[in-house]
Design a protein that fits this description.
It contains 8 helices and 8 strands. The chain is α/β, with parallel strands linked by helices. It binds S-adenosyl-L-homocysteine (SAH).
Length: 216
């Protein structure tokens, strides 16, 4: 998601109590997320959260789970920050960072669930390793997830989804379930729609979803 540049976005994030864009500060949180939130609640993260509505909705519904939203663009992250300014949910935090560096910020077994929603497709073969469902990323998820942790991935992009199904298996993970048409019978119970999802569903595009856990 590229949005119009927001002047001063970086400074706004640097000063926000619920966000960080400072690599050193982020690295210090590794292994200390429970201390940060002040409880032992499970930690769920969304990588590429965009404007953050999905994450904020879940966080409001589930006060006993802590949520960290990751987004690489400051101008996008400040949209989520503005929602949090209104809602002030104590179980939410935002990181402006590149997902490749996940293992600098989360320790082994620190994360219980990873959400990937409408991730960038990187259609060129030579960019395959940048896709958030490439084997390189399953390897990173392996390093931060609890043993029975789950990755939940939604996309409208069928080639990316087919690639992802292959990569899950190649990485030695297992699928709990997958579908090529999540909304076939309407929005399923418990499914929180993201900004992209609402747009694609209204255009009649099928949404694919997979849920995976690692082989032990
Ligand atoms: N999840 C939102 C936005 C989808 S667009 C929704 O479903 O509505 C994908 C988002 O992921 C964009 O905002 C993009 O900037 C972010 N993103 C893509 N690759 C990323 C990466 N490697 N690290 C962090 N954020 C990333």
């Amino acid at each position: 998601m590229r949005l119009r540049n927001v002047p001063g976005a970086r400074e706004m994030i640097a000063q926000d109590p619920y966000s960080s864009n400072d690599e050193d500060q982020q690295a210090m949180m590794k292994g200390h997320w429970q201390e940060h939130f002040g409880d032992q609640a499970p930690l769920h993260i969304e990588i590429g959260m965009g404007k953050g509505r999905f994450l904020m909705t879940l966080a409001a519904m589930n006060p006993d789970i802590n949520y960290v939203g990751i987004e690489k663009y400051s101008s996008v992250l400040v949209r989520a920050m503005r929602k949090q300014e209104q809602e002030q949910l104590s179980n939410v935090y935002f990181l402006r960072m590149e997902a490749e560096n996940l293992t600098d910020v989360f320790d082994r077994g620190e994360v219980s669930r990873i959400y990937l929603n409408f991730s960038d497709p990187w259609p060129k073969d030579r960019h395959a390793k940048r896709r958030l469902t490439s084997r390189q990323f399953w390897d990173r998820y392996n390093q931060i997830l609890v043993p029975d942790g789950r990755v939940i991935f939604k996309t409208d992009n069928r080639p990316l989804f087919d690639f992802s199904l292959e990569e899950v298996r190649a990485a030695g993970w297992e699928l709990d379930e997958y579908t090529f048409d999540l909304h076939e019978q309407g929005n399923p119970p418990g499914n929180i729609m993201t900004e992209y999802e609402e747009k694609f569903v209204s255009e009649g595009k099928p949404i694919c979803r997979l849920i995976a856990h690692r082989n032990r």
